[in-house]
Design a protein that fits this description.
Blueprint lengths: L6 H21 L10 H14 L1 H4 L22 H10 L13 H17 L9 H9 L9 E2 L2 E2 L9 H4 L2 H9 L11 E6 L4 E9 L3 E5 L5 E5 L3 E5 L15 H13 L5
Antiparallel strand pairs: 1-2, 3-4, 3-7, 4-5, 5-6
The protein binds heme C (2 copies).
One heme C binds next to helix 2, helix 3, helix 4 and helix 5.
Length: about 260
């Protein structure tokens, strides 16, 4: 093997670089949040308004994002865990990574902890037992949704929906389901050249084909050359319940959904 004179200094440089880099990484993960000071929390509060309030509410009361006022966290409530949640987002959910520096994320973490201390837990006014009966009966919700592994798969799993969504969000999911549809649940309608139509949630699509899951949970695959049209302007498959359920029934279903907290 040829001895490369250049290799040694380069190795040393690489080693030094690696060490500095590791040190920098460890520094970014202190055990204690050094920004948990009155100034840090205040800066965190304004960063929260910019980056988080549109999902979590101005007071952290929740909305499209989880209620952050209960002091109970599915993804962990220690400084490090909250930091990791906010820094990295929660894969597989709508919770994104944040475009902010590490120091800023520590400030946001310090502010988020103050929200949890308030302990303003929302209380649903409806009757969860009656809501559960409507869910299983008249509402036919289980044809599309699962709770603890039982039910359909057309819509999202609702096992812990009460933790991740606010009461107002749950109500609007029932009354105006088209208001905020997760990208993964956008419905499409395809019309074949022979005039047949099919509607469902788009599972996959490439240049040649498209796959859907229809509301009976059948997987359907179409070759694009057989299609006349693909309509993407269709609202979600979730029916609006504003007219089929009374105001009291809606409150009861919301109370039931709010009680679904999954395993923490
Ligand atoms: C696009 C909407 C959206 C934005 C923006 C957003 N979040 Fe979230 N966040 C969510 C959702 C949805 C969840 C619940 C995820 C789940 O199902 O566990 C969540 C969960 C969390 C959790 C975990 C709660 C728990 O119980 O463990 C924390 C903490 C959190 N968000 C903080 C923040 C902070 C701080 C910001 C701003 C830097 C932020 N989020 C921005 C949607 C959002
Ligand atoms: C025909 C299938 C279907 C039926 C029936 C149905 N849903 Fe849905 N539901 C969906 C789909 C698809 C979505 C996702 C798209 C959206 O957000 O509208 C959804 C979304 C939701 C959400 C929002 C979940 C989240 O975290 O964003 C809630 C809550 C919900 N449904 C509750 C119910 C309840 C309660 C019933 C019965 C009263 C019901 N659904 C009946 C298909 C259905």
């Amino acid at each position: 093997m040829r001895y490369d004179l250049e290799a040694k200094p380069r190795m040393r440089f690489l080693l030094r670089f690696a060490l500095t880099f590791t040190a920098a990484l460890t520094c970014a993960w202190p055990q204690q949040n050094t920004f948990d000071t009155p100034e840090g929390r205040q800066e965190g509060a304004s960063l929260f308004q910019t980056h988080c309030a549109y999902c979590h509410g101005a007071q952290g009361e929740g909305g499209r994002g989880a209620d952050l006022t209960s002091g109970v966290y599915k993804h962990g409530g220690s400084d490090r865990e909250l930091y990791a949640t906010i820094r990295n987002g929660i894969p597989g959910t709508e919770m994104p990574t944040v475009r902010a520096t590490d120091d800023e994320v520590w400030k946001i973490t310090a502010f988020v902890k103050t929200l949890g201390a308030v302990g303003l837990r929302e209380t649903a006014t409806g009757d969860p037992a009656s809501g559960k009966a409507i869910y299983a009966g008249k509402g036919r919700c289980a044809t599309c949704h699962s709770i603890n592994g039982e039910g359909g798969y057309v819509g999202p799993d609702l096992t812990s929906v009460g933790r991740s969504r606010s009461l107002a969000y749950l109500m609007s999911s029932l009354v105006t389901p088209e208001a905020d549809i997760a990208v993964t649940y956008r419905a499409v309608e395809v019309i074949t050249k022979s005039g047949k139509t099919a509607r469902g949630i788009r599972l996959n699509e490439d240049d040649l084909s498209i796959q859907l899951r229809d509301s009976e949970a059948n997987l359907r695959s179409f070759l694009k050359e057989d299609l006349k049209e693909i309509r993407r302007d269709k609202p979600a498959l979730m029916p609006a319940y504003g007219t089929t359920l009374s105001r009291k029934e809606l409150d009861d279903v919301v109370a039931y959904l709010n009680s679904l907290r999954g395993a923490l």
